[in-house]
Specification:
By secondary structure, the protein is mainly α. The protein has one domain (about 5-485). The protein has 19 helices and 2 strands. The longest helix is centred in the middle third of the chain and has 34 residues, at about 155-185. It is globular.
């Protein structure tokens, strides 16, 4: 079979998984897991092809995949697989936590939605047209909103409505920017693709291109959780099932950020726009700094990891402004590693909630003594997402900061360093209280056993977080450099 069919197959397999899950309630978890595994294998094959041969163009003409898209595709497909495995036992554990009168897990609703949710995220780096990318990102909201409200609690429904309202408003603003760029590229005889936009960029009037960027920054910034458009994110992540949070926080928020990253070289190629890096660094530093201070006063450990997601979206945006002009690979590696790491954090947080029956940090103490495997998974995930060595995010953050200081951008890099250190202290403090603190006298009793499928998902999730911190296979390392080259500026 020709490799040019891979993009279409990557989308058809989750669709098949969704349809089969509707038809077979009892087998839905395992059919979805099989679909996710096949998707992961296809995504690895597509990334391998891109690393060796360049852009992979789909046979139908609607698809194309380059190095940056392939690097984003890998964590999306991996988190889709591990969250499908995790959910099998986790949903049953959540049902038991709600008491004997609770209804069985609604597999026929959950797994079809999760498969279609994964499908539309996978479509973002695979489709070639800007309008189709926008449609894919908007559809992520449509399908994930039902997953956020999966448990039918008042708080979950409120969080889902807030999520839909804010991100849909952002999507409408972003659509105006997409339409401006769509018209500008076609008026210059170029297709509305990334390559077409890059070729047209020098001829697009600077104010028009800048207006489109501001609309993208506000619109897609709402979706990715940039401050001050972030308010939906902690609510949605604290109320959704942990298996949904892993996808939402690990890879869905990155989809809109992916669009902003791709626009940077377009802005920088236009002679009428002076120093677009300043826009990225300003928006990114505001987001990182705000999230770091929010982490100091958080009371819910799922909200804690949600604020950490906001922090990392800001780090990536800041890093793009700092390092794209000097071929800095930390930006794309941060995008890549964050997906694996944040999913691990939410997997561990979900099981901690099962063990104690609460997400309140004040009532969760001595997790390691109650459930050692869950406790150590939470510690590893927290240290990894905070950027501690020897985990993958340490490499990317070190590269970002080193490049910033080496290129003389002392103010922006110094502020970024201070905010990262503050977030590290906050995360380490909260995690140590959860794992090693003395249990409160009124703390709820531990609820065991821990679902085996969920622990298996955690074990799989730890592997890339740890291994990619000190070893990158040569092919993956080459793909990272290829992806970073796509953010370079060629005036």
């Amino acid at each position: 079979m020709s490799a040019h069919w891979l993009p279409l197959l990557i989308l058809l397999v989750p669709l098949a998984g969704a349809l089969l899950a509707v038809a077979n309630r009892r087998s839905a978890p395992y059919l979805s897991l099989l679909a996710a595994l096949i998707t992961l294998i296809l995504a690895i094959s597509a990334a391998w092809w891109v690393e060796r041969h360049g852009i992979l163009r789909g046979s139908a003409g609607f698809f194309s995949l380059d190095a940056l898209g392939a690097l984003y595709l890998l964590p999306v497909s991996f988190v889709y697989f591990t969250s499908s495995l995790y959910a099998i036992g986790y949903l049953w554990a959540r049902r038991q936590e709600q008491g004997p009168d609770a209804a069985p897990p609604r597999y026929r609703e959950y797994f079809p939605l999760m498969n279609v949710f994964a499908l539309v995220i996978l479509a973002v780096p695979l489709v070639s047209n800007l309008a189709l990318m926008w449609i894919s990102i908007e559809l992520t909201t449509v399908f994930s909103a039902f997953l956020v409200a999966y448990e039918d609690r008042a708080e979950a429904l409120e969080a889902a409505w807030k999520y839909v309202a804010l991100t849909s408003m952002g999507a409408m603003i972003a659509l105006l920017g997409v339409l401006i760029l769509y018209y500008a590229t076609h008026s210059l005889g170029q297709p509305a693709t990334w390559n077409g936009l890059l070729r047209a960029a020098p001829q697009i009037p600077g104010p028009i291109l800048l207006l489109a960027f501001v609309l993208w920054l506000v619109g897609f910034g709402a979706k990715t959780g940039l401050v001050p458009m972030h308010t939906w994110l902690p609510d949605a992540h604290s109320q959704a099932p942990a298996s949904v949070c892993a996808v939402l926080s690990g890879v869905e928020t990155s989809a809109a950020l992916y669009m902003l990253l791709r626009l940077y070289p377009v802005l920088a190629s236009n002679p009428g726009i002076h120093d677009p890096a300043a826009w990225y660094m300003t928006a990114g530093l505001i987001t990182v700094g705000s999230a770091a201070f929010m982490l100091l006063q958080v009371h819910d450990f799922k909200r804690m990891f949600a604020y950490s997601t906001i922090e990392h979206m800001g780090i990536i945006l800041t890093a793009c402004g700092i390092g794209a002009a000097v071929h800095e690979v930390g930006t794309v590696y941060q995008l890549f590693a964050h997906g694996f790491t944040k999913s691990l954090c939410f997997f561990a947080a979900g099981l901690a909630g099962v063990v104690f029956g609460t997400q309140e940090i004040a009532q969760v103490r001595g997790l390691i003594s109650r459930a050692p495997a869950v406790g150590w998974a939470l510690i590893i995930g927290t240290l990894a997402i905070a950027g501690a060595p020897p985990f993958a995010l340490f490499l990317s953050e070190f590269e970002i900061l080193y490049t910033g200081y080496a290129s003389g951008q002392y103010l922006a890099t110094g502020l970024l360093t201070a905010f990262i250190v503050l977030a590290f202290i906050a995360l380490a403090y909260q995690a140590s209280r959860i794992a090693f603190g003395a249990p409160a006298t009124d703390a709820p009793q531990a609820r065991l056993p821990i679902p085996r499928s969920s622990m298996a998902a955690i074990a799989l999730a730890i592997i890339p977080v740890f291994v990619f911190g000190f070893f990158l296979p040569p092919a993956l390392g080459h793909l990272v450099h290829q992806a970073a080259a796509l953010l370079e500026v060629h005036r």
